[in-house]
Amino acid sequence: MAFSGWFALRLSAWLALFTGCATALAFSIATPGLPATRATLAAATLLAGFLLWRHVSRTNRELARFIDSVRFGDLSAAFSGRRQGSGFDRLGSALSAAIAQLRAERGRQGDVLTFYEAMIEQVPVPILTVDPAGHVTLANSAARHLFAHLPAHDLPQFARVSSGLAQQLEQRGAPGRQLVLLNLPDGAQRAMVNSATLARPERATRIVTIEPVQAALNAAEIAAQSDLVRVLTHEIMNSLTPITSLAHSAAALLAEDDPAAAADARAAVATLARRADGVMGFVRSYRLVSRPPDIHRQRFAARPFADEIARLFTADWPPPRTRLAVSVTPADLTLNADPDLLAQVLINLLRNGAEAAAARGGDHDIALSLEIAAGHQRDRITVTDNGPGIPEAMLADLFLPFFTTKPQGTGIGLSLARQIVLAHNGTIDASNGAVGARFDIRI
User: Fold this and answer.
1) How confident is the model over 386-400, as pLDDT tens digits?
2) CA dist., res. 94 & res. 113, Å (int)
3) I want to staple 317 with a disulfide (CB 3.0 to 4.6 A). Which of 44, 266, 322, 421 is the partner?
4) What pTM did the predictor assign?
5) Residues 6+ apart with CB under 8 A from 246
């Protein structure tokens, strides 16, 4: 405001002087004689005009210099006024403060950029970028280390490493996650490739990250094999122990020449046959579990699907003792899954919950709930019951093949349910709620 006042005051003064000199010069020209006066007034008019022009253009020069400094990134310029009290010292101070603020902001942005560059450089996941022309850039040290053996960083070289990776780099694969096999000098490795397209004003850039998962898969495979062998050993030993005992008993009885012993031997052999049939049934169950389910996805309305599940369940567990609450949120929710296999999973969970609640005995009602709700990225399906819950020691083994908590159970249902959910790229978790067990499925 002070600059504006000084500028206007001086502008008025120079303008008044120029106007006065010009008026006097015009009057002297109209008056005969007075040549010296006319010459003096002409010089005064020119001087006043020059001073007026300099006063106005000085502000323009300072502003133009400020704009050029910002335009060309020269934030070291200073704009202090050379004459104190002229008003331009305040303009210079304002421009200098603006430059200082821009300089500080550039410094902060530089610090942030340096931090992100260091973070990308040090992140253990290899990162690659691909421009529309197909030029591949190894964006961090992990990527340079992983592909150090490549003589060049062009698409044909990456195709030799992995066709799946090359598809993502060539933007032929859909953005998302893909498990690929990398042929590296140290041996083949499985890796999870993630890709996304970053829209930029000048060009779109495809970002590809590579997460080596071979070690994690090996550990998971070993753990799965150990769990399976443990369960198989338990089941087979439980079946073979009585078979072996009965076989020895039958052999001993048949060695005796006694009709009663022969009858006992026949009974032992009959029992032996039944136990052998049990082992065969176990083997058939193993074949069922070892065959991955074939998923046929389709999009369907969740509400009619849930109502159909309820009708199928209540056909075996009718009210009034059994109550099933069904909830779908929002009402027009649609699911993208295999409806037949998903129905198989939910009916199995509901029946397990009803059996667990009924096993408490007494006059307790059986209360279950089936909730289907939309999630941020995955839809959630929850099944709860009012049974005794699942013992904490058994939660970790609940989905293992042939593991069961029921006397007559096969241990197939929950394992097959988990396979179906995993085939949908989903998850299934078991926990204990406030009352009874809770199963959460996310697909």
Assistant:
1) 888 888 878 877 877
2) 28
3) 322
4) 0.49
5) 268, 269, 271, 272, 275
